Amino acid sequence: MIYKSLTIAGSDSGGGAGIQADLKTFQELEVYGMSVITAVTAQNTLGVQAVYPMTVEAVEEQLHSIAADLQPDSVKTGMLYSAEIIEKVAEFVEKNAWIKLIVDPVMIAKGGASLLQDDAIHAVKTKLMPLAYVITPNIPEAEVLTDMKIETTDDRMLAAKKLYAMGAANVVIKGGHSNDQDVVLDLLYDGEQFFEYKSPRKRTNNTHGTGCTFAAVLTAEIAKGRTLDDAVRMAKKFITAAIDEHLEIGSGHGPTNHWAFRMAGLSIR
Ligand SMILES: Nc1ncnc2c1ncn2[C@@H]1O[C@H](COP(=O)(O)OP(=O)(O)O)[C@@H](O)[C@H]1O
Ligand SMILES: Cc1ncc(COP(=O)(O)O)c(N)n1
């Protein structure tokens, strides 16, 4: 059986995040990767130097090519940039019943550059979230989407409930940006229960692309039919190994190591 996953996201010329991180991750997990590019960024470990959004027609043509010939087993969205692109993506997701939809609501790059226009946030909430099997915001993204401040784990639980009420079938709020100095907690809410995934916090600047990579693991594992709990467990192991063995490349926020999980011979349990 060949599982196929589609990523709909921006290109990171530096290779650490976006489409590049997603395709590397799919490959590591033996899932055939496909891509629809929404924007081209001129980017390296120092930051984002420029953003060139694709036209809605260019996004539509790519989506059409996939839908006409290569039905994906799961679909991930990353940087979508504008309300128009979000609306087009939502239309295709609905029309083609791409029900295993993983929405990583990318808004701001680590260096501060905006990857989503301000007026597109409404479209994320109203068009995309109701279609999501799982949404994977980091803490600042969850704050924007819920209009609340998140400081404690209780705040995060409340935010997860709010995101669930907005239509996402499952919510993972990642903990990379929390103020806990020792532990990084990723929190899953499935509408009934909370599940916690913890790892030691690594003191490193080399976390470029962690969010993309985490959500890409979920996408690949969900394509294979894994439960969400198994998929999040796998994502946590994969990203922890990728951060532990980060690559000393560039002079800014370096990328994670997508082959570390495989090289360490790690498995899901
Ligand atoms: N310093 C760190 N040490 C260990 N794991 C981390 C660290 N920073 C982030 N992670 C993990 O990387 C993933 C992405 O987290 P986060 O930084 O919150 O998202 P984003 O990259 O979207 O901002 C999560 O699974 C989180 O637990
Ligand atoms: C094209 C693109 N997409 C997404 C991100 C976010 O990266 P991160 O995973 O570090 O939040 C990025 N920097 N560039």
Write the layout of secondary structure elements.
Elements lengths: L3 E9 L5 H11 L3 E13 L2 E7 L2 H14 L4 E4 L5 H13 L5 E3 L17 H8 L5 E2 L3 H8 L6 H13 L5 E3 L9 E7 L4 E7 L9 H14 L4 H17 L15 H4 L6
The protein binds adenosine-5'-diphosphate (ADP) and (4-amino-2-methylpyrimidin-5-yl)methyl dihydrogen phosphate.
The N- to C-terminal Cα distance equals 22 Å
Second CATH tier, the architecture: 3-Layer(aba) Sandwich
Give the overall form. globular
Strand order of the largest sheet: 3-2-1-4-5-6
**Beta fraction of the residues?**
15-25%
List the secondary-structure elements in sequence, H or E. EHEEHEHEHEHHEEEHHH
| CATH hierarchy, class | Alpha Beta
| Helix segment tally | 9
Bound molecules: adenosine-5'-diphosphate, (4-amino-2-methylpyrimidin-5-yl)methyl dihydrogen phosphate
> Segments where pLDDT lies below 50 for 5+ residues?
none
Strand segment tally = 9
- The average pLDDT is 96
CATH topology: UDP-N-acetylmuramoyl-L-alanine:D-glutamate ligase
Q: CATH-wise, what's the superfamily?
A: Ribokinase
Structural class: alpha/beta
What's the domain count?
1
**What's the main sheet like?**
6 strands, mixed
Helical proportion? 25-40%
Radius of gyration: 17 Å
Domain Pyridoxamine kinase/Phosphomethylpyrimidine kinase: 12-257
Keywords: Kinase, Thiamine biosynthesis, Transferase
EC number: 2.7.1.49, 2.7.4.7
Protein name: Hydroxymethylpyrimidine/phosphomethylpyrimidine kinase
Description:
- This protein has helices at residues 18-28, 56-69, 83-95, 121-128, 139-146, 153-165, 210-223, 228-244, 260-263, and strands at 4-12, 32-44, 47-53, 74-77, 101-103, 134-135, 171-173, 183-189, 194-200.
- With 269 residues, it is of the alpha/beta class.
- The strands form two sheets. A six-stranded mixed beta sheet has the order 3-2-1-4-5-6, sandwiched between helices.
- Helix 4 links the parallel strand 5 (101-103) and strand 6 (134-135).
- The protein is globular and about 45 Å long.
- The mean pLDDT is 96.
- Bound molecules: adenosine-5'-diphosphate and (4-amino-2-methylpyrimidin-5-yl)methyl dihydrogen phosphate.
